[in-house]
């Protein structure tokens, strides 16, 4: 449980800037996620925090102490790895106990602490098993237990769920969420999976080409992304091109699409000089069969996804909207007319 | 067809390997035999008594103390080198690996004559430790390759995990890497041990008169214009039996994939 402060941290691979963070503070007990596509520098940043690769410039401070040049073992932080990285010659118990033994904890306390950890992650019956005898999901639970057992100041997670299949991933994600509530750890979590980032994080930093382009809590990032890249990275999108017609209030505007439709929207974080686009999340679009007072549209395509239907609605010559509806709420077939209500929209940088 | 060819190869291998060994045992345990019949005319320990009286004990002690030292020192050199080359991204890795094989490519007679003049100047001819060093020329490449293959097969994030959990580099090597490369170390040790046990030419050139290992001792009975197969075979028994014993132990305790230097699974 500690505060991390990163100042002007830079890493180059050859001439390519792999990661550059001007200033970032991760608060005590915060679950902080670095989210971005592969090659965006998130793992490089995490490995610099761990001390596994040296930064080219800048400082890292934990609780005010400059640890930039400390070797990994002196930083009192631990890590959960993408490929688990468990010690194959030790059983589950000894894997979890490793960090404690390195800290010279008395063997009696180790026994207690390891049991407590295994119980917390619901793997106490695996204590004597060899690593190769347990499943991937169990292995990663051991990896998490091993990282948390020494009560480090920070736990780093390097895409811990991406080597698990979809069902297990969800299961372990839930486990992590539960764990996060139980033990108040400062965590830095790296992932390219927006669902993981959304469910687990207090705050998310979205990275692209080595730099952080937005930091915020999951809601802020989802509903008020700074630009189209962030918007499409964290969820489904509809983009409508056009211009701000006029400001209604301090944070609300009237947006005129290139087809001439007027849509009321939140102003978001755009400046006057930015090229703008209107973001409408699919779930913010409501369709009605009846001929009400709203935007007129035509169903261009309809897909059955089982529990839900995916519609593509044409609302103008240059704009369509994608949206989902429960499959018991069918509003019509292709080419039928519907009325479209946009519940929420925000102007963002294109 | 496939089966038949496999059977033929197997039978041929057995004959090629075991027939000479069988004959060696026949000679060693015969008192009277002219080699014209399939079995000795009279069995007995005459050859053994003869070589024991000629100084077999001293050669046995020399051979079986030099070989473990060769194993020990080549392991001590190989482990740190194999750790760096096997686990770190270093430039010209292939070149270094190939350099480690040069001792096996240069004929022993060539390096032997070179070393002979150096040892003569330094007064190291017939020196025990100097012979250990000379045996390491051939033994170390085997040890290195085997240990390096083990290091290479270990997932690098395992080292990172150990470091992040609080282990220093030294403790990571002792607690994590050493247990994991033990199979490679053992198979390297077997190669190094048998290399040292069988080394003849360099020991003959540089070891006399003090260092008479088993192969050099054996040469007394087969050298020049004469051959005495009885005593020579009796000495050979002391070279064959440990080798067979080691192979047996390897088969019993180490999986064959480790012996090939393939290293650790998963």
Task: Tell me about this structure.
The complex is a heterodimer of chains A (about 350) and B (about 270). With about 350 residues, chain A is an alpha+beta fold. Helix content of chain A is about 25%, strand content about 35%. Chain A has helices at about 40-50, 90-100, 105-120, 135-150, 165-180, 195-200, 220-225, 230-235; strands spanning about 5-15, 15-25, 30-35, 55-60, 65, 75-80, 155-160, 185-190, 205-210, 210-215, 240-245, 250-255, 260-265, 275-280, 285-290, 295-305, 310-315, 320-325, 335-340, 345-350. Chain A has a six-stranded mixed β-sheet, with helices on both faces. In chain A, α2 runs parallel beside α4 (about 135-150), α3 (about 105-120) crosses α4 (about 135-150) and α4 runs parallel beside α5 (about 165-180). The two termini of chain A are about 40 Å apart. Chain B has a domain at about 55-215 and about 245-260: MetI-like (MetI-like fold). Chain B is built from 13 helices and two strands, in the order αββαααααααααααα. Chain B has helices spanning about 1-30, 45-55, 55-85, 95-100, 100-105, 110-120, 130-150, 155-165, 170-200, 200-205, 215-220, 230-255, 255-260; strands spanning about 30, 40-45. Chain B is globular and about 70 Å long. Chain B starts with a helix and ends in a 7-residue tail after the last helix. At the A-B interface, β6 and α2 of A face α8 and α9 of B.
């Amino acid at each position: 449980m500690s505060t991390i402060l990163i100042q002007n941290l830079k890493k180059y691979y050859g001439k390519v800037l792999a990661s550059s963070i001007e200033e970032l503070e991760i608060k005590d007990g915060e679950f902080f996620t670095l989210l971005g596509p592969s090659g965006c520098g998130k793992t490089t940043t995490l490995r610099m925090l761990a001390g596994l690769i040296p930064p080219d410039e800048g400082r890292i401070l934990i609780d005010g102490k400059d640890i930039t040049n400390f070797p990994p073992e002196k930083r009192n932080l631990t890590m959960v790895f993408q490929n688990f990285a468990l010690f194959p010659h030790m059983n589950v118990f000894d894997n979890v106990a490793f960090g404690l033994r390195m800290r010279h904890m008395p063997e009696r306390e180790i026994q207690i602490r390891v049991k407590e950890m295994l119980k917390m992650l619901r793997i106490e019956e695996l204590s004597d098993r060899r690593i190769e005898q347990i499943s991937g999901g169990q292995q990663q639970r051991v990896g998490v237990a091993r990282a948390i057992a020494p009560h480090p100041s920070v736990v780093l997670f390097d895409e811990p769920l991406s080597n698990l299949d979809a069902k297990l991933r969800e299961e372990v994600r839930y486990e992590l969420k539960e764990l996060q509530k139980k033990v108040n750890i400062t965590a830095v979590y790296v992932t390219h999976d927006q669902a993981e980032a959304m469910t687990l994080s207090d705050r998310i930093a979205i990275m692209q080409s080595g730099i952080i382009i937005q930091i915020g809590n999951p809601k802020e990032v989802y509903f008020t992304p700074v630009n189209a890249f962030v918007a499409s990275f964290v969820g489904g999108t509809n983009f409508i091109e056009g211009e701000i017609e006029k400001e209604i209030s301090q944070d609300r505007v009237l947006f005129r699409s290139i087809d001439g439709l007027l849509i009321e929207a939140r102003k978001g974080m755009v400046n006057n000089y930015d090229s703008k686009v209107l973001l409408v999340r699919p779930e913010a679009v409501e369709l009605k069969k009846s001929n009400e007072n709203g935007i007129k549209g035509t169903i261009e395509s309809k897909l059955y996804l089982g529990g839900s239907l995916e519609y593509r609605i044409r609302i103008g010559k240059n704009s369509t909207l994608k949206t989902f509806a429960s499959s018991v709420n069918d509003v019509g077939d292709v080419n039928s007319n519907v009325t479209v209500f946009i519940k929420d929209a925000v102007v963002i940088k294109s | 067809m496939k089966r038949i060819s496999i059977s033929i190869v197997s039978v041929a291998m057995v004959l090629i390997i075991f027939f000479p060994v069988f004959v060696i045992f026949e000679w060693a345990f015969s008192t009277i035999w002219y080699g014209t019949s399939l079995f000795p005319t009279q069995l007995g320990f005459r050859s053994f008594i003869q070589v024991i009286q000629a100084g077999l004990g001293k050669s046995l002690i020399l051979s079986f103390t030099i070989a473990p030292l060769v194993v020990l020192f080549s392991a001590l050199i190989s482990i740190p080198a194999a750790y760096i080359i096997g686990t770190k991204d270093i430039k010209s890795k292939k070149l270094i690996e190939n350099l480690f094989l040069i001792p096996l490519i240069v004929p022993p007679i060539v390096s032997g004559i070179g070393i002979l003049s150096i040892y003569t100047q330094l007064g190291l001819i017939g020196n025990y430790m100097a012979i250990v060093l000379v045996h390491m020329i051939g033994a170390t490449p085997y040890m290195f390759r085997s240990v390096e293959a083990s290091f290479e097969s270990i997932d690098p994030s395992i080292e990172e995990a150990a470091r992040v959990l609080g282990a220093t580099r030294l403790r990571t090597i002792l607690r994590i890497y050493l247990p994991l490369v033990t199979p490679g170390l053992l198979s390297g040790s077997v190669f190094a041990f048998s290399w040292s046990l069988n080394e003849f030419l360099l020991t003959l050139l540089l070891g006399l008169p003090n260092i008479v290992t088993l192969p050099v001792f054996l040469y007394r009975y087969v050298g020049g214009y004469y051959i005495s197969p009885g005593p020579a075979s009796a000495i050979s028994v002391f070279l064959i039996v440990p080798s067979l014993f080691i192979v047996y132990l390897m088969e019993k305790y180490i999986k064959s994939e480790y012996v090939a230097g393939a290293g650790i699974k998963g």
